[in-house]
Amino acid sequence: MSAERKVSRAAADVGEAPRVLQSRSGAPPRGFAHTDAWIFDLDNTLYPAECNLFAQVDHRMGAFIAHYLGVSYAQARHLQKTYYRQFGTTLAGLMAVHKLDPAAFLAYVHDIDLSVVPEAPELRAAIAALPGRRLIYTNGSRRHAERVAEKLGVLDLFEDICDIAACDYVPKPEADAFQRMVRRHGVAAERAAMFEDMPMNLTAPHDLGMTTVLVHSSYLDHPVQEQMKTWTELPDHIHHMTLDLAEFLAATTRVCGDVSRSRPPPG
Length: 267
Fold this sequence. Notes:
By secondary structure, the protein is an alpha/beta fold. It has two domains: about 5-50 and about 120-260, Rossmann fold (3-Layer(aba) Sandwich), CATH 3.40.50.1000; about 55-110, DNA polymerase, domain 1 (Orthogonal Bundle), CATH 1.10.150. Helices cover about 45% and strands about 10% of the residues. It contains eleven helices and six strands. It has helices at about 5-10, 55-70, 75-85, 90-100, 100-110, 120-130, 140-150, 175-185, 205-210, 225, 245-260; strands at about 35-40, 135, 160, 190-195, 210-215, 240. The chain has a six-stranded parallel beta sheet with strand order 3-2-1-4-5-6, with helices on one face. It starts with a helix and ends in a 5-residue tail after the last helix.
């Protein structure tokens, strides 16, 4: 088995997650030999889901909605999850249905304790070794991404952060959101790789021509995360899956280096 194929099968047991998955089509997954833009989601992707950061954000969303709409916390939570599933993000639903100004919402929900986020020297080394540009692309705020990446010790490795405001509040998984991101940052999609913890957020990148990587986590907040437990093969829009981002990136960099050294010199 080639080194690149080994990378594509990087998966292991977490709870009920499948051990090794291949695509439904059986075709070789897109690789990384020509990747020069590495794009990372933030929450539960760059940091381990076990930090449970999003539980803090989740609770603060409910509290904000309860105060903003003058409803009980239980009613607020119901609306929060309904909007999340219907519109892609809770914020998108609040903006569409209640004409919410997003700035106050984003500031409030991301005012969280980051003491549980560990410094990540192995992740830093793996990201630093990637050939090309590196971007963070999040449905959250720039300030939240900056704080988390700084706590991990990787903020200085990224060229830029594309947050929800930069995409005019059009959220992932909307195809328009990804098109806004690639235009804004001059990304050639066929030379890019997208790393995400939510499977539906990889459909549009796949359709644009990106190599897609699912960073599988144990966090459960959406029906698709329960469905993932029953997977026996990867959906065709997901080319790779890993449970350890730093390890996956390190292995990918080795493959890219091997491919680069094997090419004949120009001329």
